[in-house]
Amino acid sequence: MTANETIHPTAPATEIDASCKLPLLALLVGASIWLVIGSVLAMIAAIKFHAPDFLGACPLLTYGRVAAAANDALVYGFCLPASLAVIIWVFARLSQTVYALPLVPVVAAHIWHLGVFVGIASILLGNSTGFAWLEFPRGGSILILVAFVLIAIPTAATFGFRRDRTLYPSHWFLLAALLWFPWSYASANIFLVSMPVRGVAQGVIDLWFGNNLLFVWFSLVGLGVAFYFLPKLTGRPLYSYFYAQYVFWTLVLFGTWCGIPAGSPFPAWIPTLSNFAGYLLIVPVLGVLIITVKTLAGAPVTSSSDPTVAYFIAGLIAFIISGITLHLVAHNDQLARITEFTWFGQAQTQLQIFGFLAMILFGALYYILPRVLGFDFIFPKVTRAHFWFNLLGSVALVIPLAIAGYEQGSHAYNLDAALPALRVSSMGLLLILIGNLLFAGNVLAMFLSWKITLVKSIFSAVTSPLKAVEVKS
Amino acid sequence: MSDEIKSSLPTPPPDPQPEAVQSNLPIWIVVLTLILIFIGGLYFDQHGGWFQAQVYGPYASADQLELYQPKSGAAAALAHGKVVYEQVCGLCHGVDGLGKPGQAPPLAGSEWVTSAGFNRLAHVPLVGVNGGIKVQGKDWNMAMAAMGAALPDADLASVLTYIRSSWGNKASEVTGEDIHKIRSTLGAHPAPMSGDQMAAMPE
């Protein structure tokens, strides 16, 4: 018996879930609203390729502002807070203790969403910093950095209070994610916005950060969460501990150097080193493929019994595709000559956001939310429909974007060549938007019914003592 | 305080946590990683410019960059000499100046090339050599045509300057005027000299 076990006894699952309820709701209600706002903004940006003067008279909704705001609303508004919500729950469950200091993330979640609001509003008003993925001006970026740290500290504390001292693979991935974002976001903001470095280094830092957010951070969270749920839902152990460890270290070591295109105007050693690392990414991608296949092998895929399994399988497949395209296309000298600086990069980004991370987060949240709140979804059948909307939407968004990028690159960067495929991709975005509306509707309906029962119980609590007072008087 | 109450109650079943198989990591994936790192290292060696800040794509090394830089003065003569040497002389004497056994003696470190004066050296390409000469103590018994007779004065001068200052050779430069003077002492069609005649020439 360690001191830990006496201070923090193993809590039953219901108690653990209840301790996560308020942080999760605070993070997810805002996140699902940002998800809808982000997809609507992305849709507005996409419509401009069909009708260039659509909303063109309104400076707030010109393409440059809307496209940046859409990406940031999806990544900082949805992906990050939803990831944090899932990490909070997974850490509490893995530690088998109630969540430490649940009110701190509740406050932090409001700071976070305020920061995203400030950031998105600034972008639409034309006050973005001009650096991709770091568009939020100082007000917004400081708020979300503070909020992230405030959420990371009690989550790490919950990790520290874990009953079982041995580490499960998800622990490494998710703990690394908690450290990775504050480090990379703070460094990038310091060197680009607060104390800007000069010249060539700015572009290098911006590309470095974009890759660390969209590839490394997303992969850490997505794989960590998938490695938790996949064995849990299929009832088979993860295959294996050492493969997962190998994937973790190779991903962290090689993933962080990628993302500098071969033709970018930097000293030759920077893109060459980036290509070298991108080439080595084949190792973690192969590892994930082996883990997925070997963990699932022989297990009846019980998507009929639990619809969330399909989300994790689809998400892992998206990761493998994304990893292979990153290795084969983005970091291959010959292929990159065609695809770099075209829509192909956007296809990669959307695959990471919708095909990989959001897919896994949706699956995790459909599993977590009914357990945390103690009642089922208001529209349970919608959870399965959402899977198909998100899957088909991702396919119909990413493949045309990749084709558009290829066409653009093989026609001397002429956007006219890319336009037909680009217009097809709007269809995928529309499907994703419908799916996201279903998700947000479900989460908000759940939140409202929880709020109503809460108000009712307060109301009955307030009304019953009144009678007692009357009796007394 | 609530612990006492809890322990008296039947504890609810703990949430089953996922587990991972503790099998060994197969060695092939480690070997594959090392092979990929090796291939990637070769790729970096060929394209990376070894961390030199001046080297930008599509150039791959500082040497390559140097080659494409326009030059002036002595450096230009030297660069021109290298080009002419590689076209005219390099085939037999080798681009590395080490010569080829059975074809041509070495120029690198050769006492014929690095002599203080260049009168004797200039005669070799201007008139040609017929018969054995001794280079670095080794006999070379073969003939060389007057390869330099057709070259303009400036070209031949830059070739001689190049071979006198490359591959570790450190001798004075030769100008076009010097070659012109030597050439004007020769007739229209000078006969090739024998090796002994050549060796007897003043440096």
Walkthrough of the structure:
- The complex is a heterodimer of chains A (473) and B (203).
- Chain A has a domain at 10-166.
- Chain A contains 15 helices and no strands.
- Chain A has helices spanning 3-7, 13-47, 63-95, 103-124, 138-160, 169-194, 200-234, 241-255, 269-280, 282-296, 308-330, 333-339, 343-373, 382-410, 415-472.
- In chain A, helix 10 runs antiparallel to helix 11.
- Chain A starts with a helix and ends with a helix.
- Chain B is mainly α and 203 residues long.
- Chain B folds into 2 domains: 27-64; 72-200, Orthogonal Bundle (Cytochrome Bc1 Complex, Chain D, domain 2).
- Chain B is 45% helix and 8% strand.
- A 3-stranded mixed sheet of chain B has the order 2-1-3.
- Chain A binds chain B through residues 9-10, 12-14, 16, 93-94, 96, 164, 168-170, 227-232, 237-246, 250, 262-263, 265-269, 271-273, 275-276, 279-280, 282-283, 286-287, 333, and chain B through 3, 6, 11-25, 29, 32-33, 36-37, 39-41, 43-44, 47-57, 59-60.
Distance between the termini of chain B: 109 Å
The major β-sheet of chain A equals: none
Give the helix tally of chain A. Answer: 15
Q: Count of DSSP E strands of chain A?
A: 0
By secondary-structure content and strand pairing, the structural class of chain A works out as mainly alpha
Q: Helix- and strand-based class of chain B?
A: mainly alpha
- From the spread of the alpha carbons, the general shape of chain B counts as elongated
CATH topology of the largest domain in chain B: Cytochrome Bc1 Complex, Chain D, domain 2
Tell me which CATH architecture of the largest domain in chain B applies here: Orthogonal Bundle
* Biggest contact: A-B, 49 and 40 residues
When the domains of chain B are counted, the total is 2
Kindly list the characteristics that best describe this protein:
heterodimer, A: 473 residues, mainly alpha, globular, disordered N terminus, B: 203 residues, Cytochrome Bc1 Complex, Chain D, domain 2, 2 domains
